[in-house]
Amino acid sequence: MSKDTITLTDNTTGKQIELPILRGTKGAPTVDVRSLYKELGYFTYDPGFMSTASCRSAITFIDGAKGILMYRGYPIEVLAEHSNYLEVCFLLLNGELPTREELNEFTSIIQDHTMLHEALQNFYNGFRHDAHPMAIMVGIVGALSAFYQDSTDVHDARHREISAFRMIAKMPTIAAWSYKYSMGQPFVYPKANLSYTENFLHMMFAVPTEEYTPNPLFVKALDLILTLHADHEQNASTSTVRLTGSSEANPFAAVAAGIASLWGPAHGGANEAVIRMLEEITATGDIQPFIDRAKDRDDSFRLMGFGHRVYKNYDPRAKLIREICHQLVNELGTEKMPLLSTAMELEKVATEDEYFIQRKLYPNVDFYSGIILSAMGIPMNMFTVIFALARTVGWISHWNEMMQDPESRIGRPRQLYVGKDTRDYIPIDQR
Ligand code: ACO
Question: Which residue among 76, 237, 302 has the greatest number of ligand 1 atoms within 8 angstroms of its CB, and so is best to mutate?
């Protein structure tokens, strides 16, 4: 076997093939199985894509064992300390950090696109008053393609760029208005003199009757949450966006599909579950029974916010978010963040417990993000909406990368058919 191939032998026929091994910049070497069906007549079976690279990507790298997350080669810790969300958006979209001039230009383009077509308000008004904001998000983002048809030619690089600007710019407005609608409050228009994050808080919390100035620490914390959630390589929602876009569907439709995927509790909904669990623990005042239940194999209960499919070490995002949680509690006082002390106590007990140590179960990003969002007055049903807002740039960057990749093809998985073999049709009165 040569160095850069793997030899596969079909033990039934004795036929052998050499499969190339692809090596990226970092990460596990990848066996190129594209010729497998043609050469040997076999498919591969990998539910959940546990061992399958669905694409090549130069956007985000994760090393779960070492707890590393990098956007375009920059460690998340460095970006969290020195950058901000909008600069990270530029980086993810373009591959390089912007010069000051480029960032100013990008910021002003985004500010120019923050408004929504007025007719979109009719869509909001068509929803039931108690509609979940994620349901509204899926509907409104999907409807964008009906309003911005001048940027839906997926083969035109300029169209793709304008669509990207539009989605990044409009998502805070769409998200904040879904909250305003659920509260029965008037929609607040975006303001061009505010930063991206300030603008979102302004549209969420300003009311016509009084001035609203966002707390600078809230702005910093939210900007960090957006930065940490901006991308996470080929997760379920990003893969959904890629798969949807692979049929050349327009980007608004592809991102609406991504939002729908993110909505699931196994993906974007975990920080809500953390808050519910912390509330329950705080109410009982005793952590130990919850730890015992989490360890009990006969009990399906799990410590929410612990463990991660990819990170088998401390989630690097959780470390960063934990720090800002402490800054917030210093400023606001413990009474504004009643769940933080329970969270810290739980983290201490769990991370010293053999069960969690052996299984490499550490707090993930969701363990702290809900506490921060609650302290800002953001209701639980908006947590996933904020995740969607943050992840929009990641989705678009992946979609754009896919559209430019000559190896991209329409996503069309195979299957292992386990249904009935060919059988005779029996006329209805003989069955
Ligand atoms: N509490 C208690 N035990 C756990 C937990 C937990 N939170 N997570 C995993 N385990 C145990 C499992 O029971 C299993 O034990 P066993 O080996 O004795 O059978 C072992 O750890 C491995 O668990 P798996 O489910 O195989 O690990 P996997 O990597 O598939 O699961 C997941 C990852 C789904 C995130 C899991 O850790 C979990 O359910 N966590 C709680 C939910 C959560 O916080 N989700 C958010 C993920 S982060 C995000 O989406 C941004």
Answer: 302
pLDDT at 320 over 80: yes
Q: What is the DSSP letter of 309?
A: S
CA of 307 to the centre of ligand 1 (A): 5
Annotated active-site residue 366? The verdict is yes
Q: Identify the residue whose C-alpha is closest to ligand 1 atom 17.
A: 359
Mean pLDDT over each residue of the chain, to the nearest integer: 94
Q: How far apart are CA 64 and CA 107, in angstroms?
A: 33
Q: For the segment 61-113, what is each residue's pLDDT rounded down to a tens digit?
A: 999 999 999 999 999 999 999 999 999 999 999 999 999 999 999 999 999 99
Q: Report, as an integer, the average pLDDT of 162-166.
A: 97
Contacts of 143 (CB under 8 A, 6+ apart): 120, 123
Determine the distance separating the centroid of ligand 1 and the alpha carbon of 298, expressed in angstroms.
15
Q: How confident is the model at residue 1 (pLDDT cuts 50, 70, 90)?
A: very low
Q: Quote the distance between the C-alpha of residue 65 and its chain's center.
A: 20
The catalytic position among 308, 398, 421, 429 is 308
Atom of ligand 1 nearest to the CA of 364: 48
Q: Measured from the CA of 305, which atom of ligand 1 is nearest?
A: 44
Within 10 angstroms of residue 19's Cβ, the number of other Cβ atoms is 16
Neighbours of 295 (CB within 10 A): 16
Whether the model pTM is above 0.70? yes
Q: Say how far apart CA 311 and CA 272 lie, in whole Å.
A: 20
pLDDT tens digits, one per residue of 35-60: 999 999 999 999 999 999 999 999 99
pLDDT at 246 over 50: yes
* Residue with tokens 């953001």, as numbered in its chain: 378
Alpha-carbon distance of 402 to 142, in angstroms, equals: 20
How far is Cα 342 from Cα 291, in angstroms, rounded to an integer?
Answer: 13
